[in-house]
Design a protein that fits this description.
- The protein has 112 residues and is of the alpha+beta class.
- The chain has helices spanning 3-12, 16-33, 35-38, 48-75; strands spanning 89-95, 98-103, 109-111.
- α2 packs antiparallel against α4 (48-75).
- β2 (98-103) and β3 form a beta hairpin.
- It has 4 helices and 3 strands; from the N terminus they run ααααβββ.
Length: 112
């Protein structure tokens, strides 16, 4: 796996978290919605699990689009990059020696 591949994976894997969380929430909402039906009534909110998944997919798509814009800006050379592997730098963090940014490719830290 090259540094660019590693950078892309580190950049894009968090986009799946809202979708996975919404699927889990939809399963729980489906169970709670079907509780009255199991007791002989009508399901409470039959459309709620679908709406939760759609909302999670929308949030996931929006977050993925922002990450793809970051990747596009990196390819055009309009953002800070690592001087070792030329990959994109992550967000600013506070460390013992001051603020720094970690490279998403090789993992080196760069002080600000």
């Amino acid at each position: 796996m090259s540094y660019v591949d590693r950078m892309c994976v580190r950049l894009l894997w968090p986009t799946l978290l809202p979708l996975a969380g919404s699927v889990l929430a939809a399963v729980m909402a489906q169970a709670l919605s079907n509780l009255p039906a199991q007791l002989g009534g009508v399901p409470a909110w039959p459309e709620l699990p679908g709406l939760i998944v759609e909302g999670g997919a929308l949030v996931s798509a929006a977050y993925g689009a922002t990450q793809l814009v970051r990747l596009l800006r990196w390819r055009q050379g309009r953002t800070d990059s690592c001087y070792v592997c030329t990959c994109l730098l992550g967000p600013e963090r506070q460390g013992r020696r001051g603020e720094y940014r970690r490279c998403l490719g090789c993992g080196m830290t760069h002080s600000i």
